[in-house]
Amino acid sequence: MSRKLFLAWLQLSRERARLLVALAGIAFAVVLMFMQLGFQAALYESATRIHQSLNADAVLIHPRSRALISMNNFSRRRLYQALSVQGVDAVIPMYVGLGTWKSSESQRDRAILVLGIDPTKISLHIPEINQYRDRIKLEDIAILDRVSRPEFQPFVREVARGEVVKPEVNNRRIKVVGLFTVGSSFGSDALLITSDVSFLRLFKSREPGEINVGLIKVKPDVNIPNIVVNLKKMLPQDVNVLTHDEFVEFEKNYWSKNTAIGFVFTLGTIMGFIVGSVIVYQVLYTNVSDHLAEYATLKAMGYRDKYLLRMVFQEALILAALGYIPGFAVSLGLYDLTKKATSLPTAMDFSRGLWVLALTILMCFISGAIAVRKLRAADPADIF
Amino acid sequence: MSQPPIVIIQHLNYYFGEGGLKRQILFDINLEIYPGEILIMMGPSGSGKTTLLTLIGGLRSLQEGSLKVFDRELRGASKEQLVEIRRNIGYIFQAHNLLRFLTAWENVQTALELHPDVAVEDYRTKAESMLKTVGLEQRIDYYPENLSGGQKQKVAIARALVSHPKLVLADEPTAALDSKSGRDVVGLMQQLAREQGCSILVVTHDNRILDIADRLIHMEDGQLALNSSISDPEA
User: Fold this and answer.
1) Least buried of A2, A303, A343, B114, by fewest C-beta within 10 Å?
2) Distance between A357 CA and the closest CA of chain B, angstroms
3) What is the model's pLDDT at position B226?
């Protein structure tokens, strides 16, 4: 068998130990980037779980609301006004508030997010919640998110056994009779759902006419963006009209822009990128300087600079590809581990896989571009 | 020598450095190399031998005078033209300069890949038969680190000659070798030059190998001593 020599691979593979160290380094950088981006996505995912399962095509909120844990009140009348817009089918009001959870078993107070929903209507596309709609019609009855912080797990276990937990929420004794699964958010320790009536008993300063989220359903086969435009025209400036997707974005936006969390994860990703770049640069630079006389020999024989440049970039690409594969595999394992340990919904998705692959290739190319400057030192006239 | 020379050097001057540090290395060099001849250039270190060799090999740019290799003027030649000329020259270095990450036959193949007229499917066989010619058929798959100095230099010779260049430039090819290996290596160079009809210019200090030369020239202080010949070897 006879074919052209793949010099880039032959050079890299000749020194196994160095290659393995390099690949381990790149894999490490890949894992670092995957974990940072994964945490970030998981945060956004868990912070918008409720938003995503809302039974709404459009949403009304107060213009100064910032996130689900910081919602201003607006008049319920605005929501009923929306009914007059052609194509709007139904509206459902929703109350949101941050409360404190006290119980004899836990000494410390815990901040919990409380949703007050109309039990006669479907507010959330979560079957577990909807099966309790009849039971929460009774006063002071609530259901608790199974995937709340670990401090709530004793209560979750009790409820799961069929017992009724009776904590004090905002100094009012309530009964937790059921569980559902939404997933933890960074903003609160737990999520509790009650009827709108019970909610107003827990939050005594709140008026029934002052709601936090207005859910709008449109008739089938109606163009949602058009309706949103009409709603915006018709309603005064004291409410914002968002599509369902915009409401999800609104929450993501809060976490990415208004808190340091998005910044921290971006910084973490950049760190991974830099660590990887330095490792690849080290490997390529050492390879070039160790073989400088050999590169010069190739030049003397009549190989063009272009050929040698290509060789270094091929090495960069090989390192990127071979380092990415174990990095990807380890990240899958760590996502799984994180999911089990923290109930954060960390999971691989295709676009992130592609994005990190692109970053890895870019990282190797940048390092390659810096390392090839050393190639100029390979002067064929000097090797005689 | 009835055939026209393959290298013609006329009034060549060469300088190192710039401005006040400018120093002349080669003075009015005139030299012709004829097809098939083995020319040995001797002279003390620093006399400019290697500089002349690298000029002929197209590894440095010409400054003054004329230098024609294979009928092509190197003065003012573009980088691309120099690369073309280099591809038709075989190089043998003092420190073999084999690629450490390639086996013997792979090293030889690097020279073949520069020649589009050699078919890809012939690379392996040509490389192996060349190694057989230099007596290394048992070492085809060896890496340089597992070869002796003489064997490495033989691989380098195989690499230089596998594509049948018309000119081979050798710089101190025996300097790193013991006397027996040195003899073997130059004997091989001589034999292959005869078989392929190529010219060889050898720069050396090594008195033991002068007998292979058809012609001997001396370089001293950047000037070629004229009328040197095999009949008056330096002791």
Assistant:
1) A2
2) 29
3) 62
